[in-house]
Amino acid sequence: MKVEMKQVGFHDYQMDIFHIWKLFYEEVDIVYETADDAVMRMTLELSVENGTAAVKADLTHPETERVWTHTERRRLKNESDEQRRKELKRVVGSAMLRVLEEATGLEQPWGVLTGVRPTKLMHNMLRKQGREASVRQLQEEYLLTDGKAKLLADIAERQLQVIPDLFELDREVSLYIGIPFCPTKCAYCTFPAYDIRGSNGSVDSFLDGLHYEIRETGKWLKQAGLAITTIYWGGGTPTSITAEQIDALFVTMHESLPDMDKVRELTVEAGRPDTITPEKLAVMKKWNVDRISINPQSFTQLTLDKIGRHHTVEETIEKFLLSRQMGMDNINMDLIIGLPNESTNEFQHTLDETAKLLPESLTVHTLSFKRASKMTKNRDQYEVAERDEIADMMKMANDFMEANGYHPYYMYRQKNMLGNLENVGYALADHDSLYNILMMEERQTIIGLGCGAVSKVLYPATVDEDGNEHQKIERFPNPKEPSVYNQAYKQYYDKKVRLLDEAYGHTLSHPL
After folding, report:
1. Burial class (CB in 10 A: 0-12, 13-18, 19+), 285
2. How many CB atoms lie within 10 A of CB 405?
3. With the CA atoms of 238, 243, 249 and 251 taken in that order, what torsion angle do they form, in degrees rounded to the nearest 10?
4. Does an H or E element contain 100, and which?
5. Cβ–Cβ under 8 Å, residues 331 and 320
6. Cβ-contact 217, 453 below 8 angstroms
7. pLDDT at 157
8. Is the bond preceding residue 105 a cis peptide, omega within 30 degrees?
9. In angstroms, rounded to a whole number, what is the distance separating the alpha carbons of residues 249 and 262?
10. DSSP state, 444?
């Protein structure tokens, strides 16, 4: 889709304009000079008078000469330049969205809200006003549907029930431990995931580096007087390494990290059923791992084969039941909506099989075409469902959760998601994942250890003249490639600690 764009009264927001168009068209080329071969022409005219912003959007199809028009008016609330700019951006986006919805017949349930973490916005609203006013603001200013606005409110309120001190965790951190190995790499995956049988870097050398990072992090936390809220083993698939290697890591953790008995949650991703053994489960039980993930993604074997998951449906069920027998009473499962060649029939089958197991939590992902994935690079080889069918599958998932007593407790969105939908985590009773909430809401520092792990370091919060809270977050990624990590983990760790020292105001002794 080629679009000729004309802006009157402003010249900003080009990237935001592009993202609004991407909600409606998979491929978009926007030009800002005369383009005779443009498929569509849009004019956006902004004016501000007496504190009210008005944006008129005209969209013309050059072949039929059909014109769609919408004018969006908003009373501007804020005085600061930064907040005023955000308000104007929303008005421009809203006018565009309304015109494109009319022209295409497509409804965008998330309106102009394109960020990854919409619940962060809801939390900020709830801290300043009640639920009803927050829901109304999302509907009126961001154009969310009633269902999506209420979903955000439900999740934010649930998170505050689960972690009452969510906004008071500045003297605690969480740890992410990245183990970058898998039996095979799935077609949709862009996480650090390397064939454990390959030669990309010695597993033993990688584990040497991870042990070092755990020991040094323990020293820093003790010096800084910081506690640990949650620990999450991810990857990759952490259970790709041996039971003995897992056990040795837990020994180092308990020897090095402060107050392990006070950690609120310890999760290990055992996502690939073909990596789970009785010996590994016994090690995790021994060290009081209280949450694991066993991820079927789908209960259709042809789908698993197509996306490169080299395990069987029967193996998923077998390993789930084995985990139950060995005392694992908090199991998560991931399901993906929109996998290749799957329709509502296949997804209903997945839900039917899930109902026989009823794990304590379920995360429902909508397939996203991530730039670096095998699926995106070879998209013509993967047939996926259309937008309407994706929406039907999401409704099926919501109905399933409600019927079986699951509540939503965290969510996030990604670019290039089928149907412009979302990923939602659901849980039974009090089995909400604390780490998932903390990681998504960015309310405390997450220290990433291991290959591909990203640290998110939070600086002290500040409040502007309009009462809006701002908090600087510094991302620090470890190398993704095991071979690079093995050579440089000490240098990376030193840089990471200097960043932590700066954020927490410490001048701790550490090699430069």
Report:
1. middle
2. 11
3. 150
4. helix 81-104
5. yes
6. no
7. 97
8. no
9. 18
10. S
pLDDT digits (tens, 9 = 90+) for 50-97: 999 999 999 998 878 899 999 999 999 877 788 889 899 999 999 999
d(CA 400, CA 354): 10
DSSP string, 212-243: HHHHHHHHHHHHHT-EEEEEEEEES-GGGS-H
Q: Which residues contact 399 (CB under 8 A, 6 or more apart)?
A: none
Three-state DSSP state, 434: helix
Confidence class for position 509, pLDDT limits 50, 70, 90: very low
pLDDT of residue 365 exceeding 60 = yes
Contact by Cβ (8 Å): 391, 344 = no
Rounded distance between C-alpha atoms, residue 166 and residue 442, angstroms? 10
Question: What angle is formed at CA 386 by the lines to CA 383 and CA 390, rounded to 5 degrees?
Answer: 110
pLDDT average, residue stretch 121-144: 94
| Whole-angstrom distance, CA of residue 440 vs CA of residue 206 | 27
Residues 6 or more apart from 154 whose CB is under 8 A from it? 407, 408
Structure token pair of residue 511? 């090699």
457 near 499, Cβ under 8 Å? yes
Task: Return the exposure string of 479-507: e unless at least 16 CB atoms fall within 10 Å of the residue's CB, then b.
Answer: bbebbebbeebeebbeebbebbbebbebe
pLDDT digits (tens, 9 = 90+) for 376-397: 445 556 567 777 888 899 999 9
> CA angle at residue 82 from 79 to 83, to 5 degrees?
55
Which of 257, 265, 151, 249 has its CA nearest to residue 208? 249
CA distance 285 to 233: 15
Nearest to 445 by CA among 488, 496, 481, 510: 496
Cα-Cα-Cα-Cα torsion 262, 267, 268, 270, nearest 10 degrees, comes to 150
Residue with tokens 């017949």: 105
Q: Taking Cα atoms as reference points, which of 116, 49, 81 lies closest to residue 412?
A: 116
Q: How long a stretch of residues is the chain?
A: 512
Contact 394, 366 (CB under 8 A): yes
Instruction: Give the E-state strand segments of 50-114 in sequence order.
Output: 52-60, 67-75
pLDDT bracket for residue 367 (50, 70, 90): confident
Residue 67 contacts residue 41 (beta carbons within 8 Å) = no
- Burial (CB count <10 Å: 0-12, 13-18, 19+), residue 15: exposed
What distance in Å separates the CA atoms of residue 454 and residue 14, rounded to the nearest whole number? 29
Distance, in Å, from the CA atom of 233 to the CA atom of 230, rounded to the nearest integer, reads 10
**DSSP bridge partners of 230:** 265
